Please model this.
Amino acid sequence: MKKIEPRTLAGFMELMPEDQIQFNNIKNTIIENYEKFGFLPIDTPVIEDGQVLLAKAGGETEKQIYRAYHSDPTAENLVLRFDLTVPLAKYVAKHYNELSFPFRRYQIGKVYRGERPQKGRFREFYQCDIDIIGKGQLSIINDAEVPSIIYSIFRGLGFESFKIEINNRKFLTGFLLSIGIPIGKHTDILRILDKSKKVSEGETKSSLLCYADEIQVNKLLNLLAIKGSVDQKISWIQEFETTNNEFLTQGINELTDLVKYIRLFGVEDKYFDLDFSIVRGLDYYTGTVYETFIEGYEEIGSVCSGGRYENLAGYYTDEKLPGVGISIGLTRLFDKLKDVIKLKKKCVSDVIIVPMSSDFSYAVSVASMLRNAGVKTEVCCESVSFKSKLKYANRMGVKYIIIVGEDEEKTQKIVLKNMVTAEQQTLNTDDAIKFIKEF
Amino acid sequence: MKKIEPRTLAGFMELMPEDQIQFNNIKNTIIENYEKFGFLPIDTPVIEDGQVLLAKAGGETEKQIYRAYHSDPTAENLVLRFDLTVPLAKYVAKHYNELSFPFRRYQIGKVYRGERPQKGRFREFYQCDIDIIGKGQLSIINDAEVPSIIYSIFRGLGFESFKIEINNRKFLTGFLLSIGIPIGKHTDILRILDKSKKVSEGETKSSLLCYADEIQVNKLLNLLAIKGSVDQKISWIQEFETTNNEFLTQGINELTDLVKYIRLFGVEDKYFDLDFSIVRGLDYYTGTVYETFIEGYEEIGSVCSGGRYENLAGYYTDEKLPGVGISIGLTRLFDKLKDVIKLKKKCVSDVIIVPMSSDFSYAVSVASMLRNAGVKTEVCCESVSFKSKLKYANRMGVKYIIIVGEDEEKTQKIVLKNMVTAEQQTLNTDDAIKFIKEF
Model:
């Protein structure tokens, strides 16, 4: 029979088991932290009605959509989700009367975008999102809680040096207005600010000069150039406060409260900072915005981003639903940082039982006792050589193996071998369980 | 603005958070058990190349396929996976040289089938699969380990009464040959046996008479009617042993070994039985086959099924890869049995902090301390009435709330309230943490 090549599509991550274990450990660390902060899980479908999911989409997003059909591509309007935010909007609008607000939800799932496949770009990838959705209103304290979640996760992943960079879109709008830039030019200016870290100051300046005069541009460059501690930056911006500019006043108040509460939530100063060039999604965020950078890996971009928005589900409901949320692109994070993340491997077997005799009865009973005691146990039952069994155990990376033969069966003992030190000891099963569990 | 109705497609499960928590608890119980038995996780893409995934498909399967495309439905041959077995075959063939055998893998993920939507039928549903894949050979002990995994899972889900029904396809083939039914008629006969539990004996008899004579049919009906213990059934079939029928000899030997090892793996006799009417997938399984029924819920069918197959990946590779595996249809299991499964809810917050004053600083610091100690904590930061906060805490179903006001801040204490008994006690934060963790 002619064989078909068992290939996997380009842009779709498929890991070997040892990498998958590490991937799952990272995912579980994220879940544990989301739950520690009281977020509830939801799991929306991967396929949704195109009319519902594309209510807002357009431009680039629409071009990247994966569509699905069951029998007739022209008759069915089904799309694969391209993020977890639009499904959340649908979910909250649909279940509005059954939910308790503020609604704190997390969702971790695969999303689909038809990007041009290239190294580090994925067409199927995991997003790990949290959002806190208010009913009509939502306290700024929620915005301050978000960095403490990011902090908790990246500390949990073993990172010592990273920085959560924070800005406020109301402040940005207020600042632009205060230096005399009319609202019609804000989008263009913000787009330049957003790129300013990736280009030279000269380039930023000449771009800005297309939309603002020299004095305005210098004030903007001063803003971007502020150095110092968070408190120094807060003092610096507080000097701009005017009574006539509500955006500026609100933005500064929000940033001030934010910093106060971030500290109360236990985030050390060295892990967060204000960065007035951060903008994020132009037509979505309206207040606090976040980005997160791993020290030494700034070139991979922000590993956790998000912000505050005015209204989650305007396409589906008249209810005003302000929210704040973040997303971690887990597939990309893993792809770029898997060798840096130092998490203890958790899910390979604790022990592999290697029988010496060809009767496996005793080995199987021992396996059963270990599993009943909660020890992750594998037992080699194939009729292969003892050497092959040892080789298999070695490749699986377990720390301990248990060797059993006729002598052990007679005395109802086992031989526990440390695969690292090669030390062996003869124990009864109960003591072996205790020993393995303590390790 | 005209609003779009936020609807979810028919046949796609979307749960409220409290049900999602329960769903995830079941999923995690399954994962814990798969890992306890040493299975390694893999996660293959949802979208695969149609040429690869449909190598074997045809008939009903092909009709149910969901297809996907990014820009041109006529140019792209992409399909959504309809099970986790074909992706496993692809995975093992593709990564053959990098894997260690026997390869024990688990995968839990959504699969897609365009079934006619109706109550209890899903177009997107979770499958939870394990398979043990051998390189050229695979010991029967693996077949005996599988019921111990099923046992461990359903006991873990809190079920007291269920039965793992076991048969062997070699035995069935051998039995049919031994009573003189030629191989060409086996498929038709097996199809009738497979349905025999759902129809009357009379109906089974008249169906069988289309393919066999009266004497043969009576022998078949005798086989289906055997009553008694597993050992009695084994004795009964051992009487059929002949030297001229290798299928029969092998089938009986395998069943005998299987029962011996199932017991050594710790499965009590009341949880498994032999049922000679079980057939499963006609053109796939070649040895042991399993079905699992929950007592009192037999009408929902088998909740966990699978079996032994000769060759996993014949479409992709010449390597002979025998395997044994099972699948749990989690979405359907949840849909049918969610009210019966008694698992402790694990992931809502342990405690909700309800501040009395309008300054939330102290509440936030307390939340931070609790979370650092690993307590799942939520803090009500909205400027709503104390009564609204209590109502929210009630709806979230937490056992404890912590009340903090000016007095507590001054004395650096908290008030811990048991929401069930309404008992309150004033504690310092460390003692509160200890108290909550002990509970």
Chain B touches chain A through 110 residues (CB under 8 Å). The radius of gyration of chain B is 28 Å. Chain B is about 40% helix and 20% strand.
